Amino acid sequence: MKILVPIKRVPDPQTNIVVKPDGTGIVEDNVKFVINPFCEIALEEALRIKEAQGEGEVVLLSIGTTDSTEQLRTGLAMGADRAILVQSDTMLDPARAAEVIEKIVEQESPELVFLGKQSIDDDANQTGQLLAAALDWPQATFASKVELSGQDVTVTREVDGGLETVAFTLPGIITSDLRLNEPRYASLPGIMKARKKELKEVPLADLGVSADPKVKQVSVAPPPKREAGKTVETVQELVELLHSEAKLI
User: How far apart are CA 103 and CA 109, in angstroms?
Assistant: First the structure.
């Protein structure tokens, strides 16, 4: 089985993010970048599927500048077989990203595309669904458990009311949730092998996809500071504050 795993370069979740004074983005100086955590979970599951089957290929895909090669090399060190970098100097919105992935799917013909359910920088949670619509493939989002039997896939997914089980026949698309697995660390031998694995760079223009966004980012702003809490003496006082100030009841 060939599995395509798109991954995204994002700021480390532990990094202190500072918004630019003009609101056009974040200050990237001295910010550590990593594989998006949900993408890393998707990669781990793809590797487990390959290991369980005893054969197959896991192909990484990222969209961005050459800076993204660091995250692709990390994925290769974890065990992916090869990687593709679609070069773009601008950050693509989910709709354009889905168009890029669609083009790569047409070239690579994977049986399964495994994505993170969302990236932690914009939290859009759209790329997997848009890709499924473009390819007209079945999809299972927010996966917390994946089981394969031949060409049949059963996915347990997390929904507001609990868990839901869906099934489809390959080819298809899965997006991972946090509880799907615990990603492995790249081993030293894996890091050494990653240096020799193929990392192909493809200009965005070669795919015929426009970099013009379909969704425009108007501005970026830090969240408002939390106000200090209040200490109440009685339950009645708490109820009154919840009603008059918090507007919760």
Answer: 10
